[in-house]
Amino acid sequence: KAGVTQTPRYLIKTRGQQVTLSCSPISGHRSVSWYQQTPGQGLQFLFEYFSETQRNKGNFPGRFSGRQFSNSRSEMNVSTLELGDSALYLCASRPGSSYNEQFFGPGTRLTVL
Amino acid sequence: QKEVEQNSGPLSVPEGAIASLNCTYSDRGSQSFFWYRQYSGKSPELIMFIYSNGDKEDGRFTAQLNKASQYVSLLIRDSQPSDSATYLCAAGGYNKLIFGAGTRLAVHP
After folding, report:
1. For residues B74 and A47, what is the distance between their CA atoms, to the nearest angstrom?
2. Which positions of chain A have pLDDT values less than 50?
3. Fewest CB within a 10 Å sphere: which of A11, B27, B40, B104?
4. Of residues A68, A29, A56, A3, the one with CA closest to residue B43
5. DSSP result, A51-107
6. CB distance B8 to B87 below 8 Å
7. Which of A98, A104, A105 comes nearest B93 by C-beta?
8. CA A2 – CA A24 distance, rounded (Å)
9. Are A90 and B43 in contact (CB under 8 A)?
């Protein structure tokens, strides 16, 4: 089975712009979670989608949003980018519940100038 | 109190020794526990998971779970320099998977 894929792998944006990141889960996996990882804050949970519905949400401002399509692919959007949004954004998929193993994609490295 | 706590390290061990990584969790409803390894600049890679009290062995890795003490550990036998990485512990409950901040392991020759 192919693993979790994320596009693009690297992105450079300027403050005030918006960005959309994409994630394709492992085939058959219905849950997609997004995380932000920075050196100082570690792995921070953004949100989780299951069957096109947001099931959980972390403590991030409304500038961070996401969605999931019927084929389980997911996108996350960050509007009005700030310098502090520079981070590695990771997507992870699992079959369904939190009892299942979760597998990460390679991540998207976002740099905001 | 953080939901999943790990010592940030670095934990330094000599090559060939046993590395012991520990994790505690606060939610007694957690039912599944995972260990991920993350190399610098890479994404986390799942190395072990455990659901039941006791030990679970996979090659050089042994995961230990004690639900009464809300404690999870990972032992790495015959540590190699290639094991040098950050190890993330995660606890899963109903619709929730919480990660610790990770422990940095350094294996020196």
Report:
1. 28
2. none
3. B40
4. A3
5. TTEEEEE-S--TTEEEEE-TTS-EEEEE-S--GGG-EEEEEEEESSSTTS--EE---
6. no
7. A98
8. 10
9. yes
Region B1-25 average pLDDT: 92
- A64 vs A17: CA distance, rounded Å: 13
Residues of B in contact with A43 (CB under 8 A): 44, 88, 99, 101-102
> What integer best gives the mean pLDDT of chain B?
93
Report yes or no: A25 at the B interface, CB cutoff 8 Å.
no
Structure confidence by residue, pLDDT tens digits, B60-80: 999 999 999 999 999 999 999
Q: How do B103-108 and B11-14 pair as beta strands?
A: parallel
Contact A15, A112 (CB under 8 A): yes
